Amino acid sequence: MGEKNKLFNPQVVKHSEVIRKLVEESSPRKTFMLLIFLSSVIATLGLLNDSGAVVIGAMLVAPLLWPILGISMGVLVWDWKMIKLSLLSIAMSVVIAVVTAIVITFFYVPWGASAEILRQTNFGFMFPVSIAAGAAAAFALSYESVKEAVSGIAISVALLPPLVTIGIGLGGTDWELMLTALELFGINLAGVILTAFIIFAALDFAGYTRTVETAVKKEEKILKSN
Questions:
Q1: CA-closest candidate to residue 166, choices 28, 42, 47
Q2: Which end of the chain is more exposed for a tag (fewer CB within 10 A), N or C?
Q3: What is the pTM of this model?
């Protein structure tokens, strides 16, 4: 019982360390963009070939969850630079994933694509998952004892498949599929941001505005030097 209470106690959270990690992982570094590209290739081929296992592998590679959590943190402490950094990473991820999927779909002849794509664009199934995953991701980032769960959460929230499905829809001129995937990505994005914001607020991150400012300034210098 004591261990359970400790888990939900903000006093055991290493706030500064969590913020530093979140800012670093939310940043659009070259490694971030490379991982988004590689995961997009894997996810697109997995969806086109109706392979759930390959899609899961792609979600393990994709670092897309981090900048979404970064938006939640930025809004909580009202740091526009943190929000802008995270939005830039998400925008670049969207462009890379969609363009990659368009190109692959245009040149690739798929076999049995429909079943896995339909599973990954199921509103009734995926939206509740995104709500739970947003809360779980915020907890996993904040508590040392459950940080290993982040990769599993990245799989459950399924942010990458809707993105590459947008590209598949565009590449195959399937506008209905493209719009459905776009709506699902937007809903999942909002669900994760909202629930992560609530968890970060409950864990007393709101008082760490200066820490976020310092971490973001340091990250901006790193980006300019690269």
A1: 47
A2: N
A3: 0.81
